[in-house]
Amino acid sequence: MASQARRGGVSLPERPNHSKSDQSLSLITKITRSPIVSRGKQAAGDASFVAKKLLKSTGKAAWIAGTTFLILVVPLIIEMDREQQFNEIELQQASILGTAAIAAPQSAK
């Protein structure tokens, strides 16, 4: 009937059809079709999208920080360790030879 053209008068908006089919819907079906649930699903979808993007960018940042550490800091640590070992060997040799580890320059009298 709604598809038939009406002649004259004022047409009112159609009312929702509350027939037996709507009454026979279960409570769970009514709840899942509610606007609150649909907005909750949308919010959960948006949150998961943001979480995925955040994890991806965090992974990229971790990769950059890790490779930078390996390239710049690890060689520095190795060189500092070598220097410390070299100083310890010099001290051992100086103590074996009986000389002062650091000889102060003496002025000519």
From TrEMBL:
What subcellular compartments does it reside in? Mitochondrion outer membrane
Q: Which residues cross the membrane?
A: 61-78
The record's keywords, sorted A to Z, are: Membrane, Mitochondrion, Mitochondrion outer membrane, Protein transport, Receptor, Translocation, Transmembrane, Transmembrane helix, Transport
Q: Sorted alphabetically, which Pfam families does this protein's record hold?
A: Tom22
Tell me which InterPro entries the record gives: Tom22, Tom22_pln
Give the span(s) annotated as Disordered: 1-25
Q: How does the protein associate with the membrane?
A: Single-pass membrane protein
Q: One GO CC term of this entry?
A: mitochondrial outer membrane
Give the CDD domains listed for this entry. TOM22
Q: Which PANTHER family match?
A: MITOCHONDRIAL IMPORT RECEPTOR SUBUNIT TOM9-2
Per the record, the similarity remark reads:
Belongs to the Tom22 family.
Q: What is this protein called?
A: Uncharacterized protein
Q: What organism is this sequence from?
A: Lupinus angustifolius (Narrow-leaved blue lupine)
